[in-house]
Amino acid sequence: MNQFIRLVIRGISLSQIQSGIYVLLLEEESGKIKLPIIIESSQAQSIAYALGKRDPSRSFTHDLFLSFARIFHIRLKAIVIYKLVNGIFFSYLLLEKDSIKKEEKEIKEYKIDSKTSDAVALAVRFQAPIYTTKEILDKAGIYFENGFPMDKENDPYETGAENSTLLFFKEKSKQDLENMTEKDLNVLLNHAVNNECYELAARIKKELDRRE
Questions:
Q1: Of 80, 96, 103, 168, which is most buried by a Cβ count within 10 Å?
Q2: What is the pTM assigned to this prediction?
Q3: Where are the domains of the chain?
């Protein structure tokens, strides 16, 4: 997997913009790049459950898949987030299966497309690594320098628009966002990350990338 970049789960937070939606925050191992992914409530609960916040009365389809895989000697080698189209992340599972016959020691490898949130929920259960590409991090990742969010070309602290607020943005439509200047978007991106509003940051980043 040398051509991919490994990610770790940084956390899951409730969306501050849309009810019932969560933000899964993945992070490049050095901590310099964060990748926010919007997921639904059921997948968020499943991931949180597998991370250790367990409710004994709950069980998820991902747990059934884990039991099934163990019985049939299937291992999840890794998950890969390999494509980003119109804000939607595409992933696949990289699976290994031992031969059923004792005299055969062949290990077969399979790729199965998966919803990214489901793939992450399985990765946590199998303790499998999560990977993505540099292209996706360049498109949707939030870069940090010395602990502060940085636009790759502009320093948001030097834009001068100090009065931008997250509340002001939340009341704006997509069209309003498109009408904002690049300078104001960079400042707003900085505010969003500092306040850990990663869904908001992802939307701003998407608009900035659209203008490139």
A1: 80
A2: 0.71
A3: 5-139, 142-210
